[in-house]
Amino acid sequence: MELVIVVLLGAGAYVGWNIGANDTANCIGTTVGCGLISFRKAAILVAVFAIVGAVVGVGLVKGARAISKKTIATILVGWVLTPTMAGSFSFWLYKVLKVIWN
């Protein structure tokens, strides 16, 4: 019985991966094809969004009350704080190194 569950979960993950890849190609493939964004940027963009969709999707399967608002809020705060903090750190590091080398 356990082997059947493992096989079914594996098949479900495989199908889910393929459906997601197909949907991704449909929605972002044209922007890569016309040269608007690079393939690398598209892959990063899709990965950031496929993760949040998975969190919400699993929550919806278990019922709307199962969605952790704290988890969603943490993800959203991370989207804002990560580039802000990285940019600030880079700016100040540049200033310090410029003072040291000049």
Which descriptors apply to this entry?
single chain; 102 residues; 4 helices; 0% strand
| First-to-last CA distance | 70 Å
Query: Biggest sheet, in brief?
Result: none
Number of extended strands: 0
The percent range for helix content is: over 70%
Structure classification: mainly alpha
Mean pLDDT: 84
Q: If you had to describe this structure to a student in words, what would you say it looks like?
A:
- It is built from 4 helices and no strands.
- Helix 2 runs parallel beside helix 3.
- The protein folds into 2 domains: 66 residues; 35 residues.
- With 102 residues, it is mainly alpha-helical.
- The chain is extended and about 70 Å long.
Brief account:
The protein is an all-alpha fold and 102 residues long. The protein has 2 domains: 1-66; 68-102.
List the helices and strands and how they pair.
Layout: H1 2-33, H2 39-49, H3 50-61, H4 69-101
